[in-house]
């Protein structure tokens, strides 16, 4: 536009009222550059709450939560798509689901103003800053491999030999956005979330990350953390061992309440199938956790009983807790057993 504008006249011959009329020529370069830049993709409303998240809203570090989730005791860390041991659906990184659709998850608690955030895997992938075409490629390669190996069990035995499909930075971005989703949904499950301690908030977020919408089936646990009355008979367990006493009630006046909350989880099949992970998560609900984390875990480990597995097969959930275990060890044991039977 500067090339087509006429030469400026002598300032002495131009009235002062005419000076502002010459200003609109300056925005031209901005308009020109905007025409060459690609149009940004619109942000789906379903992921906007995740993008609006601020670390100051919680009492623990998101980085600490990510470190726990990617640990082998929890979700593990795989840079190629692998099948979920229970459903067979593709996961990547620290258990990030790759093909979930957007789901409706209504808030049924009239006293909780927070809503559940359940976007699709593709929308979470986009929120993490990854290109949609890469997700399609990862899923295509996963389906091709699954077709070759026929079963998910064979696929899982080859997890640690798979060629990485994403970088470590990509997996961290996916884990962060999924962790934020878990935090937002933990707040929707617990109306008192903001009053919990940092470890308690992290424990609830871990439960949501692992179970997703299935946490809604833990009615007794959710009623307790929301300070709702629970029938005594519903908490009764003749075989349950009480947690050890190590601190006076006066120091932690709500200690008995949180013991009951912990017991409600310890009596679940989830805690017995995922005993190692559950011990770490349930211990965080202890109000004394910050004073001595090791002692809180020791109290849970001393009481929590492992799941009883039948001889004819191993639980898929139990197998998922130890994904690095090689199939060779199992093959050797099977061969030795067969040889003994023949003898």
Strand content: under 5%
Q: Please state the CA-atom Rg, rounded to the nearest Å.
A: 28 Å
Tally of helical segments: 16
Largest sheet: 3 strands, antiparallel
What is the total number of structural domains?
2
Total E-strand runs: 3
Class from secondary-structure proportions: mainly alpha
The ordered H/E elements are: HHHEEEHHHHHHHHHHHHH
| First-residue to last-residue Cα separation | 95 Å
The shape, in one word, is globular
Percent of residues in helices comes to 40-55%
Unreliable spans: 1-6, 11-38, 232-238, 312-334
Mean pLDDT: 79
Order of strands side by side in the largest beta sheet?
1-2-3
Provide key terms for this protein.
mainly alpha, globular, three-stranded antiparallel beta sheet, 343 residues, 16 helices
Describe the structure.
The structure is a single chain. With 343 residues, the protein is mostly helical. The protein has two domains: 49-194, no CATH class; 218-307 and 315-322, no CATH class. 45% of the residues lie in helices and 3% in strands. The chain contains 16 helices and three strands. It has helices spanning 28-36, 48-51, 62-69, 121-127, 132-149, 152-157, 168-189, 198-211, 219-225, 232-235, 255-266, 269-273, 275-283, 293-301, 316-320, 327-342, and strands at 78-83, 90-93, 96-97. The protein has a three-stranded antiparallel sheet with strand order 1-2-3. It is globular and about 55 Å long.
